[in-house]
Please model this.
Amino acid sequence: MLSDITLGQYFPAKSPLHRADPRLKICLTIFSIVLIFCAGNFFSLGAAVAYIGLGMALSRIAVKLYLRSLKPILFLVVFTAVLNVFYGTGEPLWQWGVFKITQNGLVNSLFVSIRIITLILASSVLTFTTSPTQLTDAIERLLRPLSRLRVPVHEFAMMMTIALRFVPLLLEETDKIMSAQKARGADMESGSVLQRIKALVPILIPLFVSAFRRAYDLAIAMESRCYHGGGGRTKMKVLRFGRGDWLVLGSAVLALGAFIALNIVFPPAVAR
Amino acid sequence: MAFIQVKDVRFSYDQEEAGGREVLHGVSLEIEQGEFVALLGHNGCGKSTMAKLFNGMLLPASGQVLVDGLDASQEENQLEVRRRVGLVLQNPDNQLVAGVVEEDVAFGPENLGLPPEEIRRRVDGALQAVDMYQYRLHAPHKLSGGQKQRVAIAGVIAMETKLIVLDEPTAMLDPQGRQEVMETITRLNREKGVTIVLITHYMDEAVQAGRVVVMDEGRILLDGTPQQVFSHVERLKRHGLDVPQATELCYQLRAAGIELPYIPLSVEECVGMFQKLLAQ
Model:
């Protein structure tokens, strides 16, 4: 039951985006998120949305999966939309006591909703097309300059790799311990909130004990395999910036140009 | 000179504390290159401690462990020692580092700082050697116990160590997984000439080795070929150790006055002997 949770949400497929350099994809995701936030009117926002839409189309992943990724933030979208509707300025279209709806409020609300949705879609394009190992690898490479400032970049990437490896294992273990405690008569579904929190203690303690034991074993296994930190380590898979990546990068430059032009030519739609 | 030389090693956990429980009381052992040694014994007899002494994970309180002539207790030798001695642990889940099979196998060679093409070659070769090549892109947590353990073994093979120490590699596996792992180990020893030290408490696994070392309470009790060691049925039983079932059966038959030409070690051998006897 618990092991159904997948982390990273990677969907393997053969698409130009899957093949693209993960470092580039991370940078482009951040780039598109910045675009979305800088958009001042519907035209430039539309350009940003179209760019992300292009990414979605190129990923060859069903739209249904993208829509599913929006589910968890649906509440947030509705909440901010409703809030924005009532916080508009200008002539009220409708009023009831302190509540008033203005045209500006409606526009704001639509704008913000599109923003949040595209934000999630942009990060989904990244995580759907990039495997967790590629992601950690790319983050390690992108942050490497920071290691000159004594930021433990390699250690951080190693921690992520190990966390990704052990999360499904610990979930499975939690499941097992829960079943074991239930078999001994533990009641985790009834009672007040406080009682239910207390009922978690007999699950968490064995889980922690076993996690420490695993960590001890893992440390021995890693040291036995000559692990001695990031120094002198090489990689089997070296990230290469290929011809396809230049095309992707070119598309980003075009999108940026169109975006800036649209942002300047048309007046801002949202009062901020 | 023997590949591994253990000279009068004493060891206790909590060495700083006075009166810490001593686990090894002066053990000496030599292992030659190419041998397949099974290290047998009870829980707590010191056999797992031995495994960690072989690659310098633990350091002896007194005595010496030499690996290929290198003193394993010297800090500056540790990396060199671990390039020569690989260690496979009991729980396959706890020793895999990466979330993809081939990346995990690459972990060791990457630590050695090898060029990418060389790592690729070794990883592919190691995965083929344990018959897991078709699973190279799978996530370890989706594999069976035996498969995971074979990936762990591949991780050591890829480092091309001369000796592989396996600390109860089959203890957590089902019968099929046990068989898979045992086949892989024997094949490695026979075809690639890798020296194997198999720590186990399964007698039928020990029988497959070329040499059996029995430990009891921090000392070496018996050392010899499986035939020699398991002929001491009385002595093993006195120390609370088992012998293979076929050996046990024939030993009891002999004790009951039935004449048998020899004492077999495996079920197949036993069946063969009885078929010959009955045909006469």
Summary: Confidence is low (pLDDT under 50) at residues 1-7 of chain A. Chain A has two domains: 1-130+240-272, 152-237. Strands of chain A lie at 92-96, 99-102. Residues 152-237 of chain A form one domain.
